[in-house]
Amino acid sequence: LNGQMEAGYHEVSFDAAALPSGLYFYKISSGDFTSVKKMLLMK
Questions:
Q1: For 5-17, how does the pLDDT look when each residue is reduced to its tens digit (9 = 90+)?
Q2: pTM, 2 dp
Q3: Is there a contact between 27 and 36 (Cβ–Cβ < 8 Å)?
């Protein structure tokens, strides 16, 4: 996702069908704010 969104709750879905099970990292950035979190994908 790239672009400006209004303040509030937002949800993002992605297709992980082609990804193997494992630990993944995702990054959320907005202005001066950046957060990196872990996501565990189990199939």
A1: 898 998 989 899 9
A2: 0.71
A3: yes
Cβ(7)–Cβ(29) under 8 Å?
A: no
pLDDT tens column, 20-34 = 999 999 999 888 999
> What long-range pairs does 27-34 form, CB within 8 A, spacing at least 24?
none
Give me the residue label for tokens 């990054």: 27
The number of helices, as runs of H, and strands, as runs of E, in the chain is 0, 2
Greatest CA span in the chain, whole angstroms? Answer: 35
Considering only CA atoms, which of 15, 1, 21 is closest in space to residue 39?
21
Q: Report the alpha-carbon distance of residue 3 to residue 5 in Å, rounded.
A: 7
